[in-house]
Amino acid sequence: FICMGGTPKRMENFAFYIMKEIGHKLPAGTTLLDISHHSYRYSMFKVGPVLSVS
Which class for 21: exposed (0-12), middle (13-18), buried (19 or more C-beta within 10 A)? Predict the structure, then answer.
């Protein structure tokens, strides 16, 4: 699934929400990471089968 919209912070919060709703657990010692952090134009977070993009 791909969910688009909102500010980068809103999409990060959405990714945390999805993680909680689908019961996805991150591996020990890791955090949710903006996988497009070098772009400076948008944010992208992947949680299980969901891609959250601003």
Answer: exposed
Can you say how many angstroms the Cα of residue 31 is from the centroid of all Cα atoms in its chain?
11
d(CA 49, CA 12): 15
Q: What is the mean pLDDT of residues 1-28?
A: 92
Q: What angle do CA 6, 20, 53 make, to 5 degrees?
A: 25
| CA nearest neighbour of 18 among 34, 42, 30, 1 | 1
Q: Which residues pair with 3 in a beta bridge?
A: 52
Sequence ranges of the domains in the chain: 2-53
pLDDT at residue 13 in the model: 95
CA triplet 7, 38, 22: central angle to 5 degrees? 55
